[in-house]
């Protein structure tokens, strides 16, 4: 079935993007061709530790992170980027040697390890017979299918065992796109960006990454009563969830609108708030209003908070940890409360939840949490957000400057409403929302709500 993609721009964006406030539906294909070379393994350039398994942490092992995360990094120019990246990747895998391994079943039932095999990372070189401008810098609706831009291993390879895959696609204009697929069981967002920046530093001529990587999964606390992972379903059967035909859309929120709410929060509450607090509150309220749920229906907002600062006594001060080091923050209320509250009140609810982070994490470590905080309720009233604007994907410079665009590729998620925050293209300083959080019948109302925020806040 063809997925639906939509572009909505409540505010003016860069000239290469569509400016319409009306939904643009459909996936377009303009006859351009991407030619791929066969996938090849890039192995560490020097011998690395092998023959042992590295256990994942208690957070890595959560079922919610056993997925591949796909994204694109767009660059306007580059001279033989595939050759450069392949060499830099090979060198980076010496210090990041677990990434060259494979995910395997642990000797403990239901758990996973990383086997240090040194096999390497699957790498694909590709070329497109069009310019980035001709495909509108891959703005929505994309003029090239995502499968053309993402790497796949040979068919006999178990995709679930892989930790990282890369594809470099050179365009006729001299620009290029890096297609990244990373295992969320091994990296969190900060960790994946750390690795990509390490490859980029070596590509720019540094002898080694400026941040030395550490594995140290054993330092992540593991609650004594952590429930065992659920047993795998019989082969050929999948857990039963309700699917929702979410529509992908991109919306730009200008910095002026965000700053006005931040100032209003300070005036009304005496508390500072962040861009994340404001944009998350706006998104949650706009989505709840558009969804027209019963006033008594409980709606839930969730996001993963970085907890490296809470583990400063066990993790190195200089950083380098690239595993999952996040803890879920959740806020719940009735639909009626979110619909009728002022935006400042919704911001305060989010800030209150963030301030409980340390206490909630301690309760989980001590085994005092009655429910698994990592378990997400799959229903239309749940929305999960992730902030990619500050974790480093926008700062991966291979020698020709930072990417001009970062594009998540989560078009196949039809179970949980999601929104990813991205940086707006320069020179704008606001936030781009990459959303799959409403179904088609709620899309126009959602766009109108965001437009109203941008115009009246």
From TrEMBL:
A Pfam family annotated for this UniProt entry: Transferase
Annotated spans, Disordered: 1-23, 36-55
Protein family membership: Belongs to the plant acyltransferase family.
Protein name: (wild Malaysian banana) hypothetical protein
Provenance organism: Musa acuminata subsp. malaccensis (Wild banana)
